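Hey Z.,

So I finally got round to the zinc ion thing we talked about over coffee. Here's the setup:
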Amino acid sequence: MSDHVHVRLREGLGVNDDGDLVEQFACRCGAVWAKTYPLEGGQPDQ
Ligand SMILES: [Zn+2]
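And the result:
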């Protein structure tokens, strides 16, 4: 592939096993990303 600027299209929202909000993105080329939003007041050490 030549230079390609990924376009992050939001695919959906979900919740992972830790209960954090996960936003999923995908480009039409097949690249995918996931952005996690930790819950406010969460305790990372648990
Ligand atoms: Zn792409």
